[in-house]
Amino acid sequence: MENNKILEIQNKIVPETVELFMKRYEILKVISSMQPIGRRSLSVKLGITERTMRTEIDKLKEMNLIDIKSAGVELTKDGIDVLSEIHGSFYYIKNLSDLELKLMEKLKLKKVAVVSGDAEKDSFVFNDLGKKAAEIVLELIKNDTVLGITGGTTMACVVRQMKRKKGIKNLLVLPARGGLSEELEIQANTIAANLAEKIDAPYKLLHIPDNLDETELGVLKNNKLINDVLQDIKRINLLVFGLGNAKEMAARRKANKDVLDKIVKDNLTAEAFGYFFDKEGNVKMQTNSVGISLDNFKEIKNSIGVAAGKSKAEAIYAISKFNNNFILVTDEAAARRILEL
Question: How far apart are CA 111 and CA 144, in angstroms?
């Protein structure tokens, strides 16, 4: 019998069991995102009386799912594992495989993976997104892989959630584009280096800031070290990339007023690799950034796009209109919104 049918029957016969299950799941989830957290803060966050929370904390402690420390409550390893298993079960309970098929059909993509929830509202969903993307990346890494990865918080999460892997021959990791205007931990260079460490691979870096003028870019491209990396980028055969809302990405990259005005005027909805797209996937503007080209993007054998949250729906739709030769990893909120477009 399917998991969702079992839950449906259980909810009819012993609804208090399902309610208790969901209450404890919410407690574990809040602890995961805010640990260490005090009981009082937990009570306020979840709208549960302190007395009830004390009882639940004691039960979870007995089950070895949490530790109670002076700084507050934290998940144990068992607690982390159980929370992950519960969240994973929602894939079946919510029949997300059907949602994946509908989204794959609408966007004409190679493959779609959807995680439960809304990453913009729940940090656990964001981590789950990173974990799912990391699993797909590891499956695709083979001998002779040149792996490129872009920057951003989502890509940093993918690498953070990735398990270690060794024994791959002739592997190289590269930042898919330059860009030194962001915080260090979410720059493509930093993420590429962290990824290389996880999979025991050599890596190269691309030290070129965003938003240089053409003359400055020309000088840097003639530098032998930089030119060597740019040539390697053309050899990328496994790409992991983020994409975003045009306005948000332009603001994050400190774009000038002319760029921001054009985004509004032309109703641009998406940004990826320094290019801006309208809702039909037409390229309308390019910033002076260096790295992977759109021609490269279309030709790469295995590309994985990772983006989540309802606000990314139009951006995902636009990029898929430009190129549908990639695997999409997203969340339930974005998926359902895309189906409405």
Answer: 23
Q: Is the pLDDT of residue 2 over 60?
A: no
User: Would you give the DSSP letter of residue 55?
Assistant: H
pTM over 0.90: no
Do 55 and 103 lie in a common domain? no
* pLDDT (mean) for 81-95: 80
Tell how far CA 128 is from the center of its chain: 8
129's tokens:
């997104």
- pLDDT: is 7 or 2 the higher one? 7
End-of-domain residue from the set 44, 69, 88: 88
Long-range Cβ contacts of 284-288 (<8 Å, 24+ apart): 285/259, 287/210, 287/211, 287/253, 287/255, 287/259, 288/210, 288/211, 288/212, 288/213, 288/214, 288/217
Compute the average pLDDT of residues 235-245.
96
Quick one: which of 57, 115, 37 has its CA closest to 336? Answer: 115
Same domain for 216 and 71? no
Residues 144, 256: contact at Cβ < 8 Å?
no
Residues 273/282, Cβ–Cβ less than 8 Å: no
Q: At which of 88, 112, 137 does a domain end? A: 88
What is the pLDDT at residue 210?
61
Residue 77 near residue 32 (C-beta atoms within 8 A): no
CA atoms within 13 A on the CB side of 209: 10
54-80: b (≥16 Cβ within 10 Å) or e:
eebbeebeeeebbbeeeebbbbeeebe
Between strands 302-306 and 327-331, the pairing is parallel
Q: Which residues contact 175 (CB under 8 A, 6 or more apart)?
A: 148, 149, 150, 151, 187, 188, 189, 191, 192, 205, 206, 291
CA distances from 237 to 29, 56, 310 (A): 37, 50, 30
What is the DSSP code (8-state) at residue 143? Answer: T
Mean pLDDT estimate for the chain: 88
In whole angstroms, give the CA distance from residue 194 to residue 279: 34
User: What CATH number is attached to the domain comprising 239?
Assistant: 3.40.50.1360
* Domain with 165 in it: 95-340
